[in-house]
Design a protein that fits this description.
Order of helices and strands: EEEEHEHEHEHEHEHHEE
CATH topology: Rossmann fold
Strand order of the largest sheet: 7-6-5-8-9-11-10
Strand content: 25-35%
Structural class: alpha/beta
Radius of gyration: 17 Å
Shape: globular
CATH architecture: 3-Layer(aba) Sandwich
CATH class: Alpha Beta
Distance between the termini: 39 Å
Length: 219
């Protein structure tokens, strides 16, 4: 199988795979393939917005050799499990508010030593900032009306100098009526006013309807 344009990610047509950190162990019922004696896990873009972002034309991964990652909205840990595969030597901190989702994520983290689950509200970064410390990559996937402000606050509190951050903008969590383009423009303006520069914008259609990925760096 040929390597993809993204280091650590294998691609077969429109299918993506990550090398399984825990061979023989599935996280969400995903398919395994074996190449040259190495087991890989299918990375489902219908269940992971980061996979959808890559398949929809991202020219590079949104991070480069991060040592610490902060993931806001970890849910059950689906995408984080693939980041765990890709970044075996990094520390991956996952913030999740829902007790039900957190229980599943916690069980996953017990099997993957580079995952660090934190039961907390992403709207209150002051409650976990000291535990997480400065991170090289920040990822947000939360269903909040004020998600752009939450993102900017976390970037200001936790992102290290030279780091990057990826916002998975859930437009219908902001409004049910306004056009996607209007909400994206408004969000970009808000981020710019808070000192953040959008360096890549990418729709996640058809994998996640009315979702747009915004990759940012401090201006």
């Amino acid at each position: 199988m040929p390597a993809s344009e993204w280091p650590g990610v294998l691609r077969r047509g429109r299918e993506l795979y990550t090398r399984n950190l825990r061979p023989g162990e599935r996280v969400y019922g995903e398919e395994f393939i074996v190449e040259d004696g190495v087991e890989y896990r299918h990375w489902d873009p219908w269940r992971s917005k980061l996979a959808a972002y890559l398949l929809n034309g991202a020219s590079r991964l949104p991070f480069e050799h991060p040592r610490r990652v902060l993931y806001l909205g970890a849910a059950h840990g689906t995408t984080l499990s693939h980041l765990s595969d890709l970044l075996p030597d990094a520390q991956l901190f996952g913030i999740e508010k829902s007790g039900g989702s957190f229980g599943t994520f916690l069980a996953l983290a017990r099997r993957r030593p580079n995952l660090f689950p934190i039961l907390a509200d992403a709207q209150l970064p002051e409650r976990y900032q000291a535990d997480v410390g400065p991170v090289d990559f920040l990822y947000q996937d939360v269903a909040l009306r004020n998600q752009a402000n939450v993102f900017a606050e976390n970037v200001g509190a936790c992102l290290s100098t030279g780091g990057t951050a990826l916002l998975m903008l859930k437009v219908r969590s902001v409004t049910q009526r306004r056009p996607v383009s209007a909400v994206v423009t408004e969000t970009r303006t808000s981020l710019r006013r808070q000192g953040l520069r959008v360096v890549d914008q990418r729709s996640l259609t058809p994998f996640s309807r009315d979702h747009v990925a915004l990759l940012v760096a401090p201006a």
